Amino acid sequence: MTEEQYIPLIHRSLTNQLSEGEMDHLQEWLAANAQNQEIYADIVEGWELANDYELPVAVDTDRAFDKFLETTQEKTTTTTTKSPTPVRRLWPTIAKIAAVGLLLMGAIWAWQTTQSSTPTLVETIATTPRTLVTLPDQSVVTLNQGAKISYNPNFGERQIQLDGEAFFEVTKDPQKPFTILTKNTATTVLGTSFNIKNEATKTIVTVFTGKVSFEDRAGKNGSLILTPTQRGIYQSDDKSLSKESDISLNTINWQKEKMVYQDQTLSKILPALESFYDVSFELKEPTLSNCTFTGTFNRAKLNEALEALAFVMNLTFTQKANTIVLTGEGCSASN
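Above: the chain's sequence. Below: its structure in token form.
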């Protein structure tokens, strides 16, 4: 059923006229999403206002009814032997019911008008680890699996809503800043490339090129200006903002087709692999973090990447669930 078809159900529920099956349908519709609950609340509010409504002008209902009888009696030759008194007593009730009906229809009309004037948002949900979206201004968004973006189809304000993780390459337009909103944060740029990872407990923005303004939407912590190799972190629990510098950009490489390393230490490589494959590493020998690796992973599977590391660096590895233990001879810090 459409939203319009549920409106009569809501009306009938307010007058206790729903069957058991119709009530079940209405409850399922309300449980489907918050928007349906808002629609229901708006209509109930209109109904309650109508019930409390009093006519602003005092009306002589007896006189009005007598006038009504005179008019109708002039147009008919039929007479009645029944007393008009019982009907006259109902006239104030009829007037009130009419007022209630008009107010309820007005509330429904206002809601439908508001809904029809609100454009349907364009929404994309990524079902793969690298879903490319080209926005109306030619900015390109790479969505990680499970991420979702939504925006107004005319894109006049260059503003989008993000859930999950995405990499942005924003087309420069000094007259129109580009803003990404998450539940708690706002990131604003003119034209740059950066990564946003939005989680339940925190939001992380890492800048590749250009400059980014990062702030909490409540406006209580000011804002951070982030430049390349810097990242801003918003913690949901204490609503704090912090900045970190000298970030290895290889740690944010899920959107790349391949990972290239030239004499990189394991201390730099392993965080990238943890992010890329969603695993954690444990070193049996702490000085293994000083050992270096040169090579390329072309979107390799995890076991292929581990075998490459093991072969080049003479390592052995064991894996239990998402934890990988590396064993081998360590390297001095000067290597």
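The longest helix spans residues 85-117.
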